[in-house]
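INFO batch 0412 | record 1 of 1 | parsing
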Amino acid sequence: MKEYTGFKFDVNVLLMPLLFVLTIWFVYWFEFVFGEDLTSYGIYPRRISGLRGVLFSPFIHASTSHLYNNTVPAFVLLGALVFFYRKVALKVFVMGVLISGLLTWFIGRSSYHIGASSLIYVLVSFIFFKGIFTRYYRLIALSLIVVFMYGGMLWYVFPIKQGMSWEGHLSGLLTGFLLAYFIKYNPGKPKRYKWEEPSSELDDPFLRHFDKEGNFIPSSEMEDDPEAYDDTISTGKNIQINYHYKKKDTPGD
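INFO prediction complete | emitting tokens
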């Protein structure tokens, strides 16, 4: 396993989610200011012209509340994706948009499907399942945090709310699972610090002052003298090391 270098914060952790959020808000601003309605650029299932929505639908929203509800989770989840899965973040983003969009085009109702919800479900699903698949404790912890924050979204992959594209949510959930399974990601072996390395008490200068009975031996009494008292200490590695020191009579012994 390759050496683990740690999760590092850099500008991309904020830049990628910020660019996405600014883009979807700019599109909504453009519609509002110029009186345009870009809903027809969303996904329309099983219609050839509706395929353009695979690319455009994540950036189009029907209302301010729709836009706001997608802004915060998109920013948080994209930031987590870049920070914890830096090397595959762009691949997950692009493939998540394309695959979830195509699935929605296949299974969706005959209506326009718009919004970044499908992408959000991709990110939730990918982060959760990838953490479980890698079995790395930090990524598993991230998976649990995602479940705690967004676990309630699971209900919306079913047709329980009128006017909501549950097909897009379901497509995002399935896409995230598939990407988590097929995209290889190796967090590497965690770096071990010196204090974490296995060691014996014989490696510690202070502990070497104690004999096998636990008696403290002052430095003045520890000498490399062949005629001095010889004591043998067995380590956990089955290595026997002899220490020579002069043993003085102790009052009361």
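INFO post-check: The two ends are 56 Å apart (CA to CA).
INFO record closed
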